[in-house]
Design brief:
With 257 residues, the chain is of the alpha/beta class. The protein contains twelve helices and eight strands. It has one domain: Alpha-Beta Barrel (TIM Barrel). An eight-stranded parallel barrel has the order 1-2-3-4-5-6-7-8, surrounded by seven helices. The structure holds phosphoenolpyruvate. Phosphoenolpyruvate binds next to β8.
């Protein structure tokens, strides 16, 4: 079984003071747990140094929610992956549906960002998934295929090998509506099959594929117990220490702890 990753995406929440309090509660909460996977929190940029500091001696990792397409230069407002590495990040989320929509980021952006993340020695968490209208029209599998085919074949084997995938059906993000374990498993198995075709069976077998979309303490174990679901990317429920710790306990139970 693959080691799970339980990742919290704090989005536009948690300035430095609140973020430190939450990070402390999470790191205290996992103390003494024999973790069968990894735990990651992704605060907003300004809170990263303080959170990374608090987590320095913790098993909980700190990551970022995006990064620049470039390593340096005249790109006002951007933050480079190497800078994120310098302040203690281990992972960077790429292609979250909110950035696909709000910032109109494209496959070209995602390839550039994943390359930057990898070159900085960090791990990219690449998000993809269909909108509600796609699912209703029976196009979920086509959208997932297009999202993966638009990016994965353009990565070098080394970059692809460290990638984490996060299937996030957009209709389940922040809506309280969760894909059923069977619905999620179907797309995860398809994602692994597509990845095997694009990058080879070895890479596909090793690749962690997270599920994201209204993961909560009471559905985490069931979701993460599915064969091709290797943990979760969690938005709302990662903002409350008790809920996020409940999700980690669900992941632990799914991992047989
Ligand atoms: C997300 O934003 O990646 C997400 C899955 O959010 P939520 O858990 O709130 O649905």
């Amino acid at each position: 079984m693959r080691r799970y990753l339980a990742a919290g995406n704090w989005k536009l929440n948690m300035g430095p003071a609140e973020a430190v309090t939450l990070a402390r509660k999470i790191s205290m909460g996992v103390l003494g747990m024999d973790l069968r996977g990894e735990v990651l929190v992704c605060p907003p940029f300004v809170s990263i140094p303080a959170v990374a500091d608090v987590l320095e001696d913790s098993v909980v990792h700190c990551g970022a929610q995006t990064c620049a397409n470039d390593a340096a230069g005249a790109h006002t407002g951007e933050v480079a992956a190497s800078m994120l590495a310098e302040v203690g990040c281990s992972h960077v989320i790429v292609a979250h549906s909110e950035r696909r929509t709000d910032q109109r980021e494209s496959d070209d952006d995602f390839v550039a960002k994943i390359e930057q993340v990898h070159d900085a020695g960090l791990i990219a968490v690449f998000c993809y998934g269909e909108q509600l209208e796609d699912r209703k029209a029976g196009r979920a599998a086509d959208v997932v295929r297009a999202h993966l085919e638009g990016v994965l074949p353009r990565l070098t084997r080394a970059k692809a090998d460290t990638l984490v995938l996060a299937y996030e059906p957009v209709w389940a993000i922040g809506t309280g509506e969760t894909a059923t374990p069977d619905q999620a498993q179907e797309i995860h198995a398809l994602s692994r099959e597509i990845t095997a075709g694009l990058l080879g069976p070895g890479v596909a077998d090793r690749m962690r594929i997270l599920y994201g979309g209204s993961v909560k303490p009471d559905n985490a174990e069931e979701l993460f117990s599915m064969e091709d679901i290797d943990g979760g990317l969690v938005g709302g429920a990662s903002l409350k220490a008790d809920d996020f710790l409940g999700i980690i306990r669900g992941a632990q139970a799914a991992a047989g702890a």
